[in-house]
Amino acid sequence: MGGSGHRIWPTTIMFKKMIALTLLFILFVSVKLNPVSAADVSTVPWGNRYFEPPRTNGRPGFIPFNQIFSPLQVSGNSANVIKSGQYDVGVEVNPQQAWQSGAMWSDAPIVDLSSSAFQASMNLFFGNVPVNFFSNPGDGMTFALTGVKPTVIGNNGASIGVWGSQEASAATGAANDAKTLKKSFVVAFDTYPNQNELDHSIWPGGGGPVRQYLAHGYPNQPSAYTTFGIPFIGSRVALDFPADAITKVPNNLADNAWHAFNVSWQRDADNGGGTLTYQFSTGGNLGLISKNIHWSNADVTRIFGTSKLYMGFTGSTGLNTEANVVSFRSIPGIVSASGEVELYKNNQVVTANTGLQSNDRVNYQYDLHAMSDGKQSWPISGTLTAVLSKASGISYLNTNGTRLTLGQTMPITATVGNTTVTLTAQLTALDTLTVTGIPQFPQGRDVKLSFTIPGQVDAMEPGIPPQQVKAQTGTVYGDNAQLIFETATADKLLSYQLIAPNKEVTQPEVPDGDLTLDSVPSFSFKKADGTNLSVADIFNQRYPGVANLMTDRSQWLLQQNTAQLKSIIVTDARNQSPGWNLSVEMGPFINKVTQQPLEQHPDDAGTAMIQMIMRNNVTTNTQLSYRIRDIHQVVPVTSAPPATKTGQNSVNISAAAAGIAIKRLPHIMAGTYTAQLTWMLATTPTG
């Protein structure tokens, strides 16, 4: 089937997929447990009292690590490494207790400002403390870089472990305080308004109910401080940030949620310095805060005294408290790599001022660069997966020039030096393209991998005003690092304008496609406790097969191999789809040795019955399937109405769970029994 133009569909078109279904009846079962190996860190559980950082496409939101960070070994340090078995999975800078001061530092310098690039990705957690008349979180946490590893714990309370004492009377005194973080740069997340102390310049006249801010500065520099007078007390110091170094945050950061925080470095082309970029997700209407700081080589020497820096975190509480916790998605020096992406139109880079019009062809250019100074290969085992965010108003194009539809896959040719590798891209959600098979970047080698993905601007309604778009890029996932694709712009996002036509522009003629059944699940059942069904279970009528499976889960024989519970994927690439229906039937269970069927129950209504919990991967709606009995009874699964847009009728449904019930049988022989499921996809008759 294929071609373009008008098509005449036959009354019925039938696709069949036959899937084996297996039941195993035995009397004795043994269980083998495999320990987590050092090479399989992707299976390490989070396993601690703080809730797990959010997953993306089922992938963990953290990476395990070992022997990278340690609490400063001095009295009074409240910091702890968070363990999960033999692995470190995060750091607790301080617990939610009063008058705490914590400091966690890398064991060695892991940030190198003489390198061409690095990236550090983290999730930050500030606890769960509401802001009201009776409550307020405090005092905050910092991300810090220093050329000299500290030997003392910083001041607590308003100083949050890095700033000079609030008791100082002059800027130089605060900068040179014994507990001020020396030779350093910090990003401070301040959650308590000490407006009569260090925060006086920030909140001189009070503010709203939430008075929190994000700022960067240099604790050891007198320019970081100013002075103000307090009646009957005298002069005190306050923090003094340039306007472009501070952002007031109107929402509470201690909101029981993880906040993404990314730091990256890009060396200047002339090696005269570089730009450090940090981005923080506020979780509120302010969205993403993005800041760029340029340092010349002379600045680096003046601020740090060296280009090899320790990375760490400090936090503190006073009477007001909060927990300050960090998990990591990538740690500098462990995997030394970076990811870049640009959008091109007519071989020119698309910028915030570029206008994209209906049906314009564009190309995404993705580059991954691993440097030779990393301490580990990336990943340690297996391959990498890129989860790319589809930009608003732009569709991906398949190899035949048609728009990629939900669930469809296509090959991508990537270059690695003078060789090529084939990757696989799949539109796994309406706004997500997942690229798999990215090969390992070996430790000790300088390797660059590049690939291009074509796209086309969607047709826009004529006359609507121009739309400015800022689009997220995507992340590359490995077991020991998760790196973000960055653009060359200040905010690291893809930016462009969508310009609607003055008159309607139709989509170019697209070749008519096919209706195909691409994927269906298969099943292998066991009891709820993981053991195999025994002959005694059937004799004793443990699984009567009468009650609806959803009302009595104790009667379920459960699907154990979740890898077999793959999605039901129907691709309808026809331009004018009359609709379709998907149904299934199941035959009797056959003994694999004797080839004899499982005894049929006298009521002729079948001996076994399957039901599935089906989840639509686009709408996330779930529903219970019809009962599928072992008597060759055809039952409907799902259907689609007529549609006029290509791909509109494609579906991707997960078999989120499946169970089977069996009626009591007076005679049964132990063994393995297999039944055949026949899936039938039929186009709707056009009349």
From TrEMBL:
Pinpoint the WxL domain residues: 503-685
InterPro entries attached here?
ConA-like_dom_sf, WxL_dom
Q: State the source organism's domain of life.
A: Bacteria
Protein's name in the database: WxL domain-containing protein
